[in-house]
Amino acid sequence: MNPSINLTEKRPTFVTHLECSATGERHPADQVAGLSEAGMPLLVRYDLEALAASLSRETLDSRPQDLWRYREFLPVRNNENIVSLGEQMTPLVRLDRTAAQIGATEILVKDEGRLPTGSFKARGLALAVSMAKEFGITRIAMPTNGNAGAALAAYGSRAGIETFVFCPDDTPEVNVREIAMQGANTFRVNGLINDCGRIVAEGKEAMGWFDVSTLKEPYRIEGKKTMGLELAEQLEWNVPDVILYPTGGGTGLIGMWKAFAELEAIGWLGSKRPRMVAVQATGCAPIVKAWEDGAEHAELWENAHTIAAGIRVPIAIGDFLILEAIRESGGFAIAVDDPAITSAQIRAARDDGLLMSPEGAATLAAYQQALRSGLVDQSERAVLFNCGNGLKYPMPPANRHLDHTGPIDYGRLIVDGPSHLPGNNPNMGSR
Ligand SMILES: *Cc1c(COP(=O)(O)O)cnc(C)c1O
Question: Which residue of 134, 139, 308, 332 has the fewest CB atoms within a 10 Å radius of its CB?
Fold first, then answer.
């Protein structure tokens, strides 16, 4: 099979219009769009009946395994506007030793760290940049905690679109550098992501750029939606009982929720939905607080801090959509602290060989907490999302040296144990 056939074969598209996620008001498709008139996120709507008539599961099954196999569910009209770096389907990785230790029947991690630019932000930006190309946009800006900016820089450069990226100055160093190296005009800002967002919004007129902030344009979520399509397909057109998702702006959670609804509408899924669980860090948990308060919207979280930079989002424009999906699904929101995140990260790496991002590890820590407190039952099949490659984050040092010119005391190699174990490394907390 021609591996690039998903990018080159002529396939029909089914977008009918854009819809305000708050008021339901319709906006036309096929022209540049940001927020709705009500200032809320716009969602892409499709003629799902026609889609169902045009695509079968068997046809889908025969296509190469990447994001563009779901073309009929996506908004790009013309092949020549597809901007792709090889967005392959990501695997479900089992963590068997970890499962045994935390009292889980099974742990399945959808490992999004395999995607281009090392995070699932590639899904969203592949779509947003392809649509920008379709509309002839030549300059894009965004605020980012790191991974989104890296994906924008990469896809923007590939499309020949100029990009401007603004990062809080404590964004992981590797992110800032990869953004710059991939060709974006890159700036460190002495504030948080919402402060960066304001710079983007206020510079629009002077700079003539298109704002691709989370949910401020309708297409990143369509890319993230493919996580839900993929997961359902990998489970043979079923959904798990629970999905634990590290939640910042919430695009992925909202996107998967949308995917499941579309799949039900075309008859590929039943009415069962996974319980959607938003995982945040105790140092930045606006959605958890809103969930606990029974509020419809979240409030700005002051002094946000956590090592899990991707979920350090003090305020999210799609908060009400996240909360809606959690409620409708019978899910919940839960916060874990940084030491628990670090412990989970070490556990998965050491016991199962999967180096997770701190955000992904947060879902493992939350799962462990939820099993213990009974929020999730052992019998429920849970899928955790590891949204970024662990290699993109600072790691504890490994400092044991040997002098090859002198005698080696082989007995000592074992006595001291692996260097990453707590006790051997003063930089890591105890488990
Ligand atoms: C962006 C990001 C998140 C949060 O994703 P949202 O869909 O915006 O909530 C989680 N983890 C990582 C690694 C990220 O880069």
Answer: 139
CA distances (Å), 324 to each of 20, 92, 370, in order? 15, 27, 20
Q: What is the pLDDT of residues 150-198, one digit of tens each?
A: 999 999 999 999 999 999 998 989 999 999 999 999 999 999 899 999 9
| CA-closest residue to ligand 1 atom 10 | 310
Looking up residue 343, the CATH number of its domain turns out to be: 3.40.50.1100
Domain assignment present for residue 422? The answer is yes
**Domain that includes residue 408, residue range:** 399-431
Atom of ligand 1 at shortest distance to CA of 247?
A: 9
For residue 412, how far is its CA from the centre of ligand 1 (angstroms)? 42
**Which residues contact residue 140 at a Cβ distance below 8 angstroms, ignoring those fewer than 6 apart?**
129, 132, 152, 156, 161, 162, 163, 164, 209, 210, 211, 212
Residue owning the nearest CA to atom 12 of ligand 1: 310
Q: Is 140 part of any domain?
A: no
What is the Å distance from ligand 1's center to 384 Cα? 13
Query: Same domain, yes or no, for 229 and 312?
Result: yes
Is the pLDDT assigned to residue 131 strictly greater than 80? yes
Q: Are residues 378 and 405 in the same domain?
A: no
What residue owns the CA closest to ligand 1's atom 2? 310
